[in-house]
C-alpha cells in the first residue's frame, strides 16, 4: 500500500503539468475552495459521543455549474485528532494515539451533474498507514448562490491504519480486559452525505456537510467500538482560488 501511495503521488505530479492537464481535458485553469471550519464527529472512531475538531476544507470548485466535464486532480488532506485513553473509561488500558495528518491526491471525473472520485493518502504522526475513499456525488443547483450535493463513499484503510484505531494487542488486552483484536485492512466504513455551498460574497462561501457513516467488517467488530453508527456535522467558510496553467 505504501508503494501504491508513492506511485499515486508521482502520478499527481505528472498530471498537474500543463501538457498533462490539456491531454486530460483539464483546460488551462482550476478553481479550488479552501478554508477552515469545525466538525462535530465521534470522539474517537467507534465512539457514541460527538466532539469538535478542525475541518480542513479543500475541494474542487470545477464541479460547479459552467465548468466542463472531465478529469481533475487535487491534493487530498485529512486530520484525525488525538485519542487519550485516560479521557474515556471504555478505552482503559489502551495506548494513546497522537494527532495524525494525512496527505495525498484525489482524482475526480465529472459527467454532467455526477462526479465520481478516488483519493489516497499517507498518514503522519498518530498513524502511518495508507487510507483513501471511493465515491460519487450528485450536484443540484438550487440558485446562483446555493448548490447542494448528495453523495455516497466507501472508506478504505490498510492494516496499519485499522490496527491503530481498531486493534487491541496482547499488552492492551491484559491492561484493559478487552479481547485481542487484529483487524485486516480493506473497507472499514461506508458513508452517505449531504453538502451545501452558499456563496454570500463573491468567491467566498459558507460550507456545510452532514454525514452518516457505518463501520464495516473487522473495524465494526472491534471491542473498542461502542456503536457502528458514526454521524458527523461540519460547517465552515471557504475562499475560492483560481489558478491558471
TrEMBL record:
The protein's matches in InterPro entries, at most eight in alphabetical order, are given as: MipA
Its cellular-component GO annotations read: cell outer membrane
Pfam families xref list: MipA
Cellular compartment(s): Cell outer membrane
Give start-end ranges for the coiled-coil region(s): none
Which UniProt keywords are listed?
Cell outer membrane, Membrane, Signal
Leader sequence residues: 1-21
Q: Which family does it belong to?
A: Belongs to the MipA/OmpV family.
Q: What is this protein called?
A: MipA/OmpV family protein
